């Protein structure tokens, strides 16, 4: 053990003692522990797998040795840990210098951020325990209405008041209220004790973020310190409720945060975003991290538009609390143009709003925080290679002259030289003494190396020492040049990785201070109207959340929203927030890299990441860029083009499914509003809108897929009675899902107590025969869309008219060409299409049934309606506007019924979806019901 520590830290074994504190005496952080552990395990093959997280509890070398000895005797299992190694970072910073840019480098996988429309939440009935108590923190306006709403749902509610003197929500007398004596851990613990003594065990928490005052609106970005205090309260509540919310139970426990940015986390309404307070964006970073640390807890960050009043807000939060989909970490809630509640979430995709490339020249001055070392240096150098601007590298370290004992030494030679120097003075070296000497010299060597690198690529550079969190210090350090700065690259940041229950609010302040207060101070020192470029180093932890990094995720999600607001306020600037995953080098040692790649986390190559940084800033892009993968990695989808060979989860809206709860009977409720489901006006029979049967199938499939944790197929589907909208009233449907063994679930949809649709849902993994087909010669058209959709063959209106021409009709079947109409998601109500493998596209799936209606009409001159489907499988859904081919094969038929197999293929022959053993009932009595009003008039 001592020899490995000596090798990995550079300290001679004779300097090491088992009593030394690893952090205080030796500077060994958790990443270095992972490296040391990996080396020890390699050298001791008989040592069982060890848990690096357990090592976090070991303070001294002796405790680590004792821990390893205990594992040798008990053969316990292992886990993982993360943090930073500053010495490795310093070594890597001087590796590449001017050769860091290579035009043929393969860029890392990357994606922008976009809004995705969500269906209305399906209500999971009875998901909370009968005696569940929920805590609501008061926002000064809405807590009372929400408390009453939840009380009516059978929940016990405790409202925690804001400090005295602040606005308080009106409360009814039967709602219990509490107030902390202080805003620290002691005060919150006291309130928790009072609540549990009066109401019982706490099962959930809802943080309502109070509105911020408007004093900061005129700043470069709106970051209000009082708002951060409220965010810190949510952080402390999470820390202190962790043991209570993570207890084992089959009932729902929840942690909900509510921000009020624009109803779309900054991506929905630019006007609201411009004045929004941005510290509240941290709530999403906190909640997304808790969703990883607390996998059994229902964690959701909500961003609710300020246009929702207290009643609508209470209704929306309640719907989210009872949502059947547990694997959805953040949801935006707003009102659409018609006044209906709209739900969205953020996904990795293609940004809807693009911004022009930065136009930097040699006259521009770019301030770079943390720019003399590591990753930020490499990225700034890549940009300098192209822009040839003047770069001002800023950091806390002083640039000092190199002492005699360190002259002409490489960084790797500094420790032995420092030890020799101390010995030459007659003193015995200690780790602290050595580290103090080495750090100062090493920093100066790195700075000098960085400055030379900029000169080698044809750009000028200087180094300035400053405290980036202090506007006055920044202004003084720039010596009157603040107004000359036209670009800012903010790369500074610190880590303090721990699980939420082990964190302190002081650690949150340190991480936040460098990332967020640093940015705020920098922008306050500059003239925003002259800024042409603003690039921020955020993290994948901000977008996805990450175990152990709640404070880091909080701070980085604030940076993401700050980038959006600065863009909205300063259209002249090219602004980007880079959500980096882990980098290869610096903090990521070989041992840590192996840990990342083993679980499917992409590790960003240094040169490739720097190249991506420069090329994106000099291209037309969205504001927020995701690089690599989520920090959790894994998933079924892989990127075979990854040059590093690691398993990479594609950035594709998180469509990989995981089972959200043990299989048990569930009851879901969905309210169907015909005014929101505009498309059903194009699905009328006898003049009344009727819910397409494929919509019922979609709901069954998506709910069962959530329960089973996999894509599903439909077996033995029966349409028992269709849902008819003969008025504008909302109709409520209930879906009962019951496990039936062998990863199957029986589904029944009922309305007003009457069964409407039923089926069995089963795992479809590996069941899809997706062999492509070729349809090169379709022959002459038998009939066309103009005839089919007007003569009573098909009753469907424009949004459902996808069949274009029918070919090769005979007793055995038919072929038809199709093109899916363009339909707005806002017209789809709760039945929005999904594009992932095995997803749902009801507007295309309806064409399978339309093909059967066409065949029956051509064969018997009679209309028909679906009754049963033996099996339905979705492979690759069509997108709106896609062309396709339908193939129908008759199984058996009579004048009263048709049974057929129908498949829908993409234009290239790839299978989209198929139905086997589908049946329709044929009757000439339906002919008049299929005619639209104008056709009926012509017949009369």
Q: Strand share of the residues?
A: 15-25%
The N- to C-terminal Cα distance equals 96 Å
Tally of individual helices:
25
> Can you give the mean pLDDT?
86
Low-pLDDT residue intervals, each spanning 5 or more residues:
75-103, 635-661, 933-940
Q: What form results from the Cα inertia axes?
A: globular
The strands making up the biggest β-sheet line up spatially as 5-4-3-6-7-8-9-10-1-17-16-15-14-11-12-13
Share of residues in helices: 25-40%
Overall strand count: 31
- Biggest beta sheet summary: 16 strands, mixed
Rg of Cα set: 31 Å
Classification by helices and strands: alpha/beta
Task: Itemize the secondary structure elements and their pairings.
Layout: H1 2-9, H2 30-43, H3 52-55, H4 61-74, H5 86-93, E1 110-118, E2 123-124, E3 133-137, H6 143-152, E4 156-160, E5 176-178, H7 185-199, E6 202-208, H8 225-245, E7 254-259, H9 270-275, H10 282-293, E8 298-304, H11 310-321, E9 330-335, E10 341-349, E11 365-369, H12 374-387, E12 390-395, H13 414-424, H14 431-456, E13 460-465, H15 471-478, E14 487-490, H16 505-525, E15 533-539, H17 540-544, H18 550-569, E16 574-580, H19 590-598, H20 606-617, E17 624-627, E18 666-672, E19 684-685, E20 688-689, H21 693-708, E21 712-719, E22 731-741, E23 744-751, E24 754-763, E25 781-784, H22 785-788, E26 803-810, E27 813-819, H23 842-860, E28 863-874, E29 883-894, E30 897-906, E31 911-923, H24 927-930, H25 933-939
Parallel strand pairs: 3-4, 3-6, 4-5, 6-7, 7-8, 8-9, 11-12, 11-14, 12-13, 14-15, 15-16, 16-17
Antiparallel strand pairs: 1-10, 1-17, 2-18, 9-10, 18-22, 19-20, 21-24, 21-28, 22-23, 23-24, 25-26, 26-27, 27-29, 28-31, 29-30, 30-31
């Amino acid at each position: 053990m001592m020899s490995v520590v000596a090798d990995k830290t550079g300290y001679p074994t004779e300097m090491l003692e088992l009593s030394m504190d690893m952090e205080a005496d030796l500077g060994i952080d958790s990443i270095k522990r992972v490296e040391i552990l990996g080396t020890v395990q390699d050298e001791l093959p008989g040592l069982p797998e060890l848990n690096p997280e357990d090592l976090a509890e070991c303070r001294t070398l002796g405790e680590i040795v004792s821990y390893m000895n205990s594992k040798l005797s008990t053969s316990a299992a292992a886990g993982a840990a993360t943090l930073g190694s500053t010495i490795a970072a310093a070594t890597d910073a001087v590796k590449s210098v001017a050769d860091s840019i290579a035009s043929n480098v393969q860029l890392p996988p990357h994606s922008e951020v976009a809004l995705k429309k969500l269906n209305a939440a399906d209500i999971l009935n009875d998901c909370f325990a009968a005696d569940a108590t929920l805590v609501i923190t008061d926002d000064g306006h809405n807590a009372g209405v929400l408390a009453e709403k939840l009380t009516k749902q059978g929940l016990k509610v405790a409202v925690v008041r804001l400090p005295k003197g602040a606005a308080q929500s009106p409360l009814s007398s039967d709602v219990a209220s509490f107030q902390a004596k202080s805003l620290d851990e002691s005060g919150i613990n006291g309130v928790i004790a009072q609540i549990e003594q009066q109401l019982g065990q706490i099962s959930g928490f809802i943080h309502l973020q109070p509105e911020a005052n408007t004093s900061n609106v005129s700043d470069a970005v709106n970051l209000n310190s009082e708002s951060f205090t409220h965010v810190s309260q949510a952080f402390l509540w999470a820390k202190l409720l962790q043991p209570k919310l993570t207890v084992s139970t089959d009932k729902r426990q929840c942690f909900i945060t509510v921000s009020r940015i624009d109803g779309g986390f900054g991506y929905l309404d630019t006007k609201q975003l411009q004045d929004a307070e941005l510290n509240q964006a941290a709530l999403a970073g906190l909640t997304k991290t808790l969703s990883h640390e607390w996998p059994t807890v229902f964690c959701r960050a909500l961003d609710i538009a300020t246009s929702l009043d207290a009643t609508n807000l209470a209704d929306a939060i309640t719907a989210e609390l009872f949502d059947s989909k547990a694997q959805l970490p953040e949801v935006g809630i707003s009102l659409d143009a018609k006044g209906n509640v709209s739900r969205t979430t953020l996904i990795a995709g293609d940004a809807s709003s693009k911004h022009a490339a930065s136009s930097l020249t040699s006259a521009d001055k770019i301030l770079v925080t943390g720019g003399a070392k590591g990753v930020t240096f490499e990225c700034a150098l890549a940009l300098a290679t192209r822009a040839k601007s003047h770069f001002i590298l800023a950091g806390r370290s002083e640039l000092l002259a190199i002492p005699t004992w360190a002259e002409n030494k490489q960084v790797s030679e500094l420790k032995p030289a420092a030890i020799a120097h101390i010995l030459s003075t007659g003193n015995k070296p200690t780790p602290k003494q050595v580290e103090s000497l080495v750090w100062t010299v090493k920093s100066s060597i790195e700075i000098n190396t960085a400055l030379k690198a900029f000169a080698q690529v044809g750009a000028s550079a200087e180094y300035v020492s400053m405290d980036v969190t202090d506007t006055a210090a920044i202004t003084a350090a720039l010596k009157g040049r603040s107004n000359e700065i036209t670009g800012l690259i903010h790369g500074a940041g610190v880590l303090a990785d721990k699980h939420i229950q082990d964190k302190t609010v002081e650690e949150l302040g340190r991480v936040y201070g460098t990332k967020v207060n640093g940015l705020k101070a920098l922008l306050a020192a500059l003239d925003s109207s002259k800024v042409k470029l603003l690039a921020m180093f955020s993290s994948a932890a901000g977008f996805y959340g990450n175990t152990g990094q709640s404070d880091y995720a909080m701070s980085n999600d604030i940076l993401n929203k700050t980038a959006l607001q600065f863009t909205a306020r300063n259209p002249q600037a090219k602004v980007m927030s880079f959500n980096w995953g882990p980098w290869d080098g610096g903090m990521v040692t070989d041992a840590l890299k192996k840990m990342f790649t083993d679980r499917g986390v992409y590790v960003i190559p240094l040169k490739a990441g720097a190249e991506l940084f420069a090329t994106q800033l000099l291209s037309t892009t969205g504001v927020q860029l995701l690089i690599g993968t989520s920090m959790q990695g894994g998933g079924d989808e892989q990127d075979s083009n990854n040059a590093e060979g690691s398993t990479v989860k594609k950035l594709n809206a998180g469509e990989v499914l995981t089972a959200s709860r043990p299989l048990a009977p569930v009851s879901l409720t969905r309210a169907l509003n015909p005014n929101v489901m505009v498309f059903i006006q194009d699905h009328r029979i006898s003049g009344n809108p009727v819910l397409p049967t494929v919509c019922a199938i979609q709901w069954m499939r998506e709910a069962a897929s959530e329960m089973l944790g996999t894509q599903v197929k439909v077996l033995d589907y029966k349409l028992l009675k269709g849902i008819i909208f003969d008025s504008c009233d909302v109709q409520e449907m209930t879906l009962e899902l019951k496990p039936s063994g062998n990863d199957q679930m029986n589904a029944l949809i009922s309305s007003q107590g009457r069964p409407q649709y039923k089926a069995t849902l089963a795992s479809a993994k590996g069941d899809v025969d997706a062999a492509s087909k070729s349809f090169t010669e379709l022959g002459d058209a038998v009939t066309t869309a103009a005839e089919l959709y007007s003569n009573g063959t098909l009753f469907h209106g424009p949004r459902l008219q996808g069949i274009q021409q029918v070919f090769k009709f005979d007793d055995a079947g038919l072929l038809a060409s199709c093109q899916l109409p363009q339909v707005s998601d806002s017209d789809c109500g709760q039945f929005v299409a999904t594009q992932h493998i095995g997803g749902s596209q009801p507007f295309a799936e309806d064409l399978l049934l339309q093909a059967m209606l066409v065949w029956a009409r051509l064969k018997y001159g009679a209309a028909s309606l679906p009754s049963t489907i033996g099996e339905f499988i979705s492979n690759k859904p069509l997108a709106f506007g896609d062309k396709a081919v339908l193939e129908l094969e008759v199984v058996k038929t009579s004048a009263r019924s048709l049974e057929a197999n129908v498949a829908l293929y993409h234009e290239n022959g790839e299978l989209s979806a198929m139905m086997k053993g589908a049946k329709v009932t044929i009757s000439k009595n339906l002919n008049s019901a299929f005619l639209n009003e104008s056709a009926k008039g012509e017949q009369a």
